[in-house]
Specification:
single chain, 402 residues, alpha/beta, 8-stranded parallel beta barrel, 6-stranded mixed sheet, binds pyridoxal-5'-phosphate
Length: 402
């Protein structure tokens, strides 16, 4: 992972959001995209907030002393133990998904004698036209309370009755790999209109509005380039204009970019093991990793750019073959990418690079087939350092009892 690139993305969001929404604005790094100690340290140094979705992410951020008052705790099902853990570590905000959770947070806060700041997660009813598995803002989503059905209003008025909760505002997230600024404009408009409605009907004025993440990144050369600064500026102009029109003070705006902070900063290097050609059918290049370090093709058929990495200049001039780059799991679906072009003489010990793997790769990795996870290396100004160690066989059997 390229540390300078990660820092650059953070600074781009910080500057763009402050220019667009004023000093109270804050980008929250959606740490589900890549979660390990050093990433939280970088976020702390860059002055970012974080979005966390589990006690595991909270515990990792806490381990490097991340100021957890700048953490927003998501998830659609926080257990009582999760809630207590997060409160005891001083997590600033809970993003509440549903009424049961609201009751549980109220109960734990009242037992502790504290008041917990919360945002309510709402679904604005927008289909961002990306993959179904990463689309979350539609009315029938598993996440949040729908504005269209009246459930958002119900949960808002209910939250306002609970004495140990402070309703700071609202949250929405419509999906991922969104390239069209219009999707963010439409969801911001629906949320602001809902805020104005809550003010008019119930006298409640939200202080914060979290517009979620989802900015698209380039996996393939033909993917569009999303200009973060321009998009944030466009959303800013539209939010400011609508606030004026609705007579709303500008809320403190949050955005939750995950993928667009780390994806393009990451690359995964594999060593080729076997090359299998089935004449008239298919070619396979097997590498020393696979769905255990990158399950995204298996899950969503995600596209990636795959290159031969140890002889790049020559590689393009050589005769190419179409192949599937596959992993070493005992599973036919263990595919990193199909229809890849690699030189016909690709062979054992060659290196294959899969680009744009900084987000939702290591974070989604597993030990399926008892494969140990690879290390994560951070590169900064030409120097490399280990930030997550390669797993050992001892790690694999650590929790097994004799
Ligand atoms: N916020 C929420 C609530 C999410 O569910 C997600 C992704 O799933 C994100 C932010 C980050 O999205 P992305 O990585 O596409 O920016």
């Amino acid at each position: 992972m390229d540390e300078d690139r990660i820092r650059l993305q953070c600074r781009t969001y910080l500057r763009a959001m402050r220019e667009a929404f004023g000093e109270a604005a804050l980008p929250l790094y959606a740490s589900k995209a890549a979660s390990f100690k050093q990433i939280y340290r970088i976020m702390q140094e860059e002055g970012m907030g974080i979005d966390v979705v589990s006690v595991g992410e909270i515990c990792t951020a806490h381990a490097v002393g991340f100021p957890l008052e700048r953490a927003y705790f998501h998830s659609n099902n926080k257990t009582d133990a999760d809630i207590l853990y997060a409160m005891e570590r001083g997590v600033g905000y809970f993003v509440v998904d549903n009424r049961e959770e609201l009751d549980a947070i109220e109960r734990v806060a009242s037992e502790k004698g504290s008041v917990q700041k919360i945002l309510l997660r709402l679904t604005p009813g927008i289909d961002p036209h990306t993959y179904e598995a990463v689309s979350t803002g539609n009315v029938d989503s598993k996440f949040g309370s729908a504005i269209e059905t009246g459930q958002a209003e119900e949960i808002t008025t209910y939250a306002l009755t609970l004495p140990h909760l402070h309703l700071a505002g609202f949250h929405c997230h419509v999906g991922s790999q969104v390239f069209d600024a219009d999707v963010f404009l439409r969801s911001a408009e629906i949320m602001l209109r809902f805020m104005a409605e809550m003010r008019d009907k119930h006298g409640y004025l939200a202080e914060e509005l979290d517009l979620g993440g989802g900015f698209g990144v380039r996996y393939l050369a033909e993917d569009p380039v999303m200009n973060i600064a321009d998009t944030v500026k466009t959303v800013g102009e539209s939010v400011q204009a609508l606030c004026r029109q609705l007579g709303l003070p500008l809320p403190a705006i949050r955005m939750e970019p995950g993928r667009s902070i780390v994806a393009e900063a990451g690359m995964t290097l594999y060593t080729v093991g076997t090359v299998k050609q089935i004449p008239g059918y298919k070619n396979y290049v097997s590498v020393d990793g696979g769905m255990t370090d990158n399950p995204r093709f298996a899950l969503y058929r995600s596209p990636y750019t795959v290159l031969l990495a140890n002889r790049t200049e020559k590689a393009e001039a050589e005769e190419q073959m179409r192949c599937s780059v596959v992993g070493r799991c005992c599973e036919s679906g263990d595919i990193l990418q199909e229809n890849v072009s690699l030189p016909c003489d690709v062979t054992r010990d060659d290196l294959v690079a899969v680009l744009t793997t900084g987000a939702y790769n290591y974070a989604m990795s597993s030990n399926y087939n008892r494969l140990p996870r690879p290390p994560v290396i951070m590169v900064k100004k030409g120097n490399a350092r280990l930030v997550v160690k390669r797993e050992t066989f001892e790690d694999l059997v650590r929790n097994d009892l004799d």
